[in-house]
Amino acid sequence: MTATPDLGTSQLASPDLLRSVFRQHAAGVAVITAHCETGPVGFTATSLSSVSAQPPMLSFGISTGASSWPAISGAGHVGVHILGEHQEQLAATFARSGADRFGAPTVWHEGPEGVPVLDGVLAWLVCRVVARVPAGDHRIVIAEVVLGDHAGSGRPLLYHQGRFNSLRD
What we know:
Blueprint: H1 15-23, E1 27-28, E2 30-36, E3 39-45, E4 49-53, E5 56-63, H2 69-74, E6 77-82, H3 88-95, E7 108-110, E8 116-118, E9 123-135, E10 138-149, E11 157-160, E12 163-166
Antiparallel strand pairs: 1-11, 2-3, 2-6, 4-5, 5-10, 6-9, 7-8, 9-10, 11-12
């Protein structure tokens, strides 16, 4: 016999319900970057997902109201960076509206296809954007991996309950 959920606390679908449920879901933290005419852009994402191994593809979501969306909407290539637990401040900088995301203390260099590549991350990829799929007030960006590096060391940064966290043993 399986237990039935307590329907006494259930709520109708709403943005608040979705946010509350996903606060219970721990997610890895990534920074997505791109280059546009005015310079580098980037944002913190917890919606990164592997899509396909052959060819290697991934996806991430971005709000159409995000300051980075105009650049991402026209970018041919993006950078995807997996952050380590030592990079909580970097994640916060790229999540903060109006922040100088590429100014000191952020350390980065121009990578292949002009994509900004962040230094000191656990892993990074440069990807070719193949689709932008409408999904409500967001777009799901699907991108094919061109090249990358997974040689960083450390443990991943996580996002849970509305804040950044580290893994515990």
